[in-house]
Structure formats: C-alpha cells, structure tokens
Amino acid sequence: MRKKRRMLLFVFLILMGILGMYQSAKAATPYEANGRLSVSKGKVVNAKGEAFVIKGVSTHGLSWYPEYVNKQAFQTLRDNWGVNTIRLAMYTAEYGGYCTGGSQENLKKLIDQGVSYATDLGMYVIIDWHILSDGNPLTYQAQANRFFQETAKKYAGYGNVMYEICNEPNGSGGSWKNIKSYAGTVIPAIRGVNSNAIIIVGTPTWSQDVDKALADPITGYGNIAYAFHFYAATHKSDMRNKLENAVKKGLPVVVTEFGISEASGNGTVDTAEGNRWITLLNQYGIGRVCWNLSNKNETCALLKSSCKTTGGWTASDLTASGSWLIQAYTGKALTGNTPSGGSTSGSGTTGSTSGSSTTGSTSGSGSSTSEKKVVKVSPKKVAVWKSGGKYYSQYKLVLKNKGAGTVNNWKIIVKLKQSYVVSDKWCGRMKRVDKTLTIRPYEWNRVISPNGTTEIGFIVRSSRPQRITTVLAKGV
Ligand code: IDC
User: Domains in the chain, start-ordered, CATH in brackets?
Assistant: First the structure.
C-alpha cells in the first residue's frame, strides 16, 4: 500500500516537473506578463501597478512602407530586438496622407492588420496620427475626431492599444493653446467609446516642449501622457535637462519617437549621445519608440537600403541605427545569421493568376480560387511635373472587384510609352522590365470583396512626357 502511494507521488512529481519545464520554455508575451497599461503618478504602469517601460519601434509612414506591417516583422522585433511595442505612423498631411488624398480605406486596413499582428504576438501598439507639415493639429481636427472615435470604438476591447493624437505640433499654429483645444475634442471622442486606453498628447516644437505641458497639463481625464521626441545627433544635454525636469516634477512622458541621426532623419549618427539619452530614459523608466522600421536610404532607418526582406533580419541587414538599437534594447548585439520570426513572409503572396486579358479589365466568373474574377482597373494620371530636366508623372490606379465572388489575388500590368524609372510607389509591389510594370498586392490588399476597391499609386520619371499605353488586370 505504502509502496503504491510512494509510486503515485513519484509519478506526480515527474508530471509537475515536465509541466514546469514546459512553462518556463514558453516565455510569456509582453501583454501576458503585464496586461493593460495605465498612467499612474507620472508613470506608465502595468496591470499590477508596477512600472512598465515601453520599448518600441515605429513604422515609417504607412502609405509609403506598408510592407513592414507583417507578422514576421513584428515577431522578429519582439524576439530578437527586445521590442514590446509597435507604433503605426499614419501621416495626415504629407503626400499620401490620411487627410490629403491617401486611401483612408487602405490606411485603416493597414492599421487593422498591424493591431491584429501585435495582438496575436502579445505586443502593445500605438496608433499615431502623424501630423507634421500640418503643424497645427486643429487643421484636421474634424477628421481626427472621426478617425479616433471610429478607431477607439473598434479596439475598445483591446487592452494593448494606445492612441497618439498628434505626432509633432510645430510652428505658431502648433502652440500648446491649440494643442489643448484640439485635445479638448479628440480626447472626449476617444473616451466616449473607450474609457481607459492610454492617450498620448504631442507637445509644441515637434514634441519637445514638455515644459509647456508641465506648466498647464490637461485635466479631467485619466491615462494621459505627453510626447517627447529627440534625435541624438541634433538634440543634446539642453533637451535632456528639459525632459528630466518635466519627469522629475511628475509629468507622464513617453518618447514616442527618437533616433540617433540628425533631426532631419539623415546625416550623421551619434551613438555616444544616443547612449547618454538611453541612460537618462533608463534612470527614470521612460518609455521610448525608435523611428523607423524601413530600408529607406536615410540614417534613421533601421534597415539598410540593400535589405529587401521584410522580417527575420540578420546582422548584415542592419544600419548603424539598427545595430545600435538592438544593443540598446537587449544589451547585446545581434550576432550571426539567426533570422527569427514565424514563417509567414507577409510581403505578398505568390498565388498564380490566369486567364487572358483585355485592356482595362478582364472578365470571368465562378467562385473557385483558381478561376478568373471580374476585375476592372481605372488608371488616372493625377499629376505631372518637371524637375531637373525630367518629367515626373504620378498615376493612381483603382482596382475594383466587379464580380459576385471574392478576389483572392490580383495582378496589374501597365505599359508606358516612354522609358522610365519608378521613382515612388505605394500600396503595391512593383517590378519593371523595360517599359512594362507588373504590380502585385501586399498581404493586406490582396483580398478584395465584391464591389470593393483597392488603390495603388506610383510616380515614374522619364525624359519625355509620359503616357500609359496598356493596362491589364487579372484577378483570381
Ligand atoms: C521623416 C522620414 C523621412 C520623410 C520625412 C517627411 O524619416 O523619410 O521624408 O519624415 O515626411 C520627425 C517626424 C518624422 C520624420 C523624422 C525624421 O516625426 O516624420 O520622418 N522626424 O526627420 N520629427 C523629428 C524627426
């Protein structure tokens, strides 16, 4: 009898051991470990009220670098870069901005994708209304109210989503008075549908003047923090003093943007100043989000322009900013060729297209995924300008699903009259061979529901005035 009991105890202990091993092998995600964040006594804290340090990476403008909104990218940041937060930067007024002709539908889809990948991975996400050339946040106040109300309602049940309502107010219109007046409608728009998400408010002079917020903070709402931005090759000890003073006096601050480049986003990088900044941030447990995840040819980009992959990066893919950041976030360099992240590439699919085509549209019917679908593409030349003796022609293509079934993948072929190079592009992966441009979707705009549309744009540079000679679209 006793022997049997001892045997049972033995088996029980072994099972417990196995369970323990399993649990320790599977580390908790940032959200599993910390839950909903809030602001308490000037600090960002986790669900248990303990200090929590946001370590984030910001996308570049969503209209311009949508390909980095993919799950593998975010997982790589989480697992190899020590990142717990993704900032989704949506420009409002620049070219392709939310309020200046960018496809609001596509931008919202990208935000949906970004939030869902971050949520699946247990990461935090900041939705950033990226004002910049529109220095005065009141310029697009009505649009911001609508956007934030809709978005905060959609994600009301998400404990990991935060809202940054005005990236960088600047110029005379970006005064603290105007920011407060703007926040006076946007905050209630969010709070009306979402009672406790953290809201981060930008500060004057490109989110540097936290002293203004300290002198006259926003009252009447909880879970409010203020933005502070720095670029280490430009901003040095004066700016650190300003930040330290505000934080010491109890102002909740999140550094929602920083880099070690110059403030232009380019020029030299200053790792020594960068380290001084990180020391200060660590001293006060201030959250920080680095600008930016892209391979743009600028020194603040974290990936080299030669890097064509959109996740699972290795050491050789990183710029000086990228390798410095990993060191700053994890305490060690990324070594060797150890790509990480799931197996989804996220940068589009390779599904085949089939069927013959006619200019402007192809038609077909049926619902199986390998059959042709009725899609129609309408090309439009939206602008032409001359610079440095070259012609720049900007085109917008609207692809519409005219059939009853869902389009699961598509391809557009555009032929142009004159030789050209593609100088800019958005919302599509593009490949040029001679005068033919083949456009394929990203993961987020691959599927088009019946009657739905997706917009794609590009700019070509040529020596002579340009025109489209043929457009073909295929959907499956
Ligand atoms: C920069 C981008 C650059 C882009 C430019 C204008 O890095 O590729 O052409 O914006 O759209 C900020 C801004 C942020 C800037 C960044 C670097 O919030 O949008 O990005 N910066 O200049 N504030 C200070 C620096």
Answer: 30-330 (3.20.20.80), 375-475 (2.60.40.290)
